[in-house]
Design goal:
single chain; 125 residues; mainly alpha
Length: 125
């Protein structure tokens, strides 16, 4: 950095704090939500983030979002028939994601994940 630049920045931040410019900002007191990008190759993360901010989500990320929503529904579903339907939908979505992005996940990893999910749900039922 430029010598002295840090001092100027620090002074401006302190001045803004004293003026109350940071009071009542959106999200104050709430945890920061970080996107799970583990399934996205590092060299594509920035491009995917730009597309997402523009409202364009790659198919494999849209499928991942659907998977998370289905898992959430499955967790709180008391009806056995509905659980079975949701499990079938979840299985289909997992297979779809494997087809859409075969480089991101191997079939064995997806099967292990699916089995662990089924085991967790079975324990709660």
């Amino acid at each position: 950095m430029i010598p002295g630049y840090e001092k100027i920045v620090e002074e401006r931040i302190l001045k803004a704090q004293k003026n109350g410019d940071f009071d009542n900002l959106e999200g104050t007191g709430k945890p920061i939500h970080y996107e799970d990008e583990t399934g996205i190759p590092e060299d594509l993360r920035l491009a995917y983030k730009i597309l997402k901010n523009a409202g364009c989500i790659p198919p494999e990320l849209e499928t991942s979002r659907e998977i998370r929503q289905t898992e959430d529904l499955l967790k709180c579903q008391p009806d056995t028939k509905e659980k079975y339907r949701l499990m079938k939908k979840l299985n289909m979505l997992l297979r779809k994601r494997t087809i859409e992005a075969p480089a991101f996940a191997s079939v064995s990893v997806m099967e292990q994940y699916h089995q662990s999910l089924v085991d967790r749900i079975s324990k709660k039922a």
